[in-house]
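User: Second chain of the day. Same drill as before.
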Amino acid sequence: MKIYVGNLSYGVTEEELQEQFGAFGAVVNVNIIKDRETGNSKGFGFIEMENQADGEKAIKELDGSSIKGRDVKVNEARPREERSRPKPRRW
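Assistant: Same format as last time:
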């Protein structure tokens, strides 16, 4: 199960998220999204949990909880939407 975590403190590490979510079951992958240019956190990330039931329990328990002083938003990740490319301008 893939889980979205938003409103993360910029200082949160993937290891800390692994520990938080690991309390509810096996974590397969943790990915904090970073800015391409600076490498700094964008304040959100994704957790992949091995078991659906464990993921649902983690969402229920951690949504609205405080991680490093910020109340995080936790829910099931939605599939990524395809972006349409803008048409090139003709001068």
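Strands lie at 2-6, 27-34, 41-49, 66-67, 70-71, 73-76.

User: Great, on to the next one.
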